[in-house]
Write a structure and sequence with these properties.
single chain, 424 residues, ten-stranded mixed beta sheet, three-stranded mixed beta sheet
Length: 424
């Protein structure tokens, strides 16, 4: 049994005096703190839902924007390296700064997306699935089962190079071979006046890794796998994705898919969108990086809220990073700073913690930790189904007379239910 004795004088621990023990961890999680309202929720979740019950071990990295700026974003790199060391990470939502944020935070520069940096370093695939709860019906009435979005985690606009074109001239893509042979070039556009240009890239190695993750995940979940790009327009870039998926499927996965009774097929992304709106769900939709970023928000919002979607980055090398699929909830944070009441949905952030704890328990053979993660998820959903929820869900629920709780009171209501479940 992985249980740790604790001191009864500890205020939080005393609330668990019935058992007199906390669940003990043997290996730390990598904890990546974040920004704005989600940072506030992060602290409350730990204090109310984790520390009273678990001897929580984490290796902490502050990915708040101020600290990323202070460390020249080295802290983001360090957190990814720690994830490689320990295998499992949990991440709070973070700001990807634009020009307005650079001014607001007086930043040294417009730092890249920390999610993009971490995904590139871990070579992972992001799988996002709506959190289904009674009383919150999908906007698309024929969706009966959740649609999982698989998002390629490397390249495209997240590792781009872009330029403001000041006037007439020519923009070219130029490839200079390392072996000294003649360069190759293609004209992007001949400008008659000011404009903009962007260069993006990807790697065969990363696409193969992504495709392999998708096929493996589909087999593990026993769900059909769809893949979509726009190869009719992007005849080289997108077409390469299509070809790699097809090659890998035929060589390594076709027989296993047929034996499992599941299907893989490719279609154009506009056709995929049209099909999905009329489907019943229950499959995995693999997308390129930007497409997955956008479509995961669509899927989560259609299922109730951006805060009602799990997100896990899975690396073929065995690394896992769990996070909420949404942003930092800037508007609520500004209200919080003014002392105004907020009712921010913390479900996805809670499920980021449960996902990481469950995986840590699985890897370290701590069934008590896995069971706790299950109970915390059950307590969260049961709280909503009892009619206690945040304002975003209260507006759309089919449950009668819902109670809209504040950000903190919602988490405390979950704690009450959790304590009841653990006492059973």
């Amino acid at each position: 049994m992985h249980l740790c004795q604790y001191i009864s004088a500890d205020e939080e621990a005393a609330k668990m005096k019935e058992s007199g023990k906390k669940i003990c961890m043997t290996t730390p999680l990598v904890e990546m703190d974040g920004d704005e309202m989600t940072r506030i929720l992060w602290k409350i979740i730990k204090e109310e839902l984790l520390l009273p019950f678990i001897d929580l071990k984490t290796e902490y990295y502050d990915l708040g924007l101020e600290n990323r700026d202070k460390t020249n974003d080295q802290v983001t790199v360090d957190s990814a390296e720690a994830t490689k060391k320990y295998g499992v990470a949990v991440k709070c939502a973070t700001i990807t700064p634009n020009a307005a944020r650079v001014e607001e935070y007086n930043l040294k520069e417009m730092w890249k997306s920390p999610n993009g940096t971490i995904r590139a370093m871990l070579d992972g695939t992001v799988f996002r699935t709506p959190i289904v709860v009674k009383g919150i019906e999908p906007c698309v009435r024929n969706w009966k089962e959740p649609i999982t979005i698989a998002r390629h985690a490397y390249g495209d606009v997240y590792k781009n190079a872009e330029m403001r074109i000041p006037g007439p001239g020519k923009v070219e893509l130029v490839y200079t071979p390392a072996d000294g042979s003649a360069p190759q070039s293609v004209v992007v556009h001949t400008f008659d006046g000011p404009g903009i240009a962007q260069g993006i890239h990807n790697l065969d190695e990363s696409i193969f890794s992504y495709a392999r993750s998708c096929f493996t995940y589909a087999l593990a979940e026993k769900k059909d796998l769809w893949f979509s790009t726009k190869d009719t327009i992007s005849k080289t870039y997108d077409h390469r994705f299509k070809d790699i998926f097809a090659e890998l499927y035929e060589k390594e996965y076709k027989e296993a898919f047929e034996a499992a009774g599941i299907e893989y097929f490719y279609t154009l992304i506009d056709d995929a969108v049209a099909r999905i709106m009329k489907s019943r769900g229950g499959f995995i939709w693999a997308t390129k990086n930007y497409d997955g970023d956008v479509m995961s928000d669509m899927i989560s919002s259609a299922n109730g809220s951006l805060a009602m979607m799990t997100s896990v980055l899975v690396s073929p090398k065995g690394y896992y990073e769990y996070e909420a699929a949404h942003g930092t909830v800037q508007r609520h944070y500004y209200k919080h700073l003014k002392g105004e009441r907020t009712s921010t949905n913390s479900v996805a952030t809670i499920f980021a913690w449960t996902g990481a704890l469950r995986k840590r328990g699985e890897l370290d053979a701590i069934p008590e930790l896995q069971a706790f993660a299950d109970k915390l998820e059950e307590a969260t959903l049961s709280t909503i189904e009892s009619g206690k929820m945040t304002g975003d869900l209260a507006l759309i629920t089919s449950l009668p007379d819902p109670v809209s709780l504040s950000s903190e009171d919602f988490i405390k209501a979950i704690r009450q239910k959790l304590e009841s479940l653990l006492a059973e």
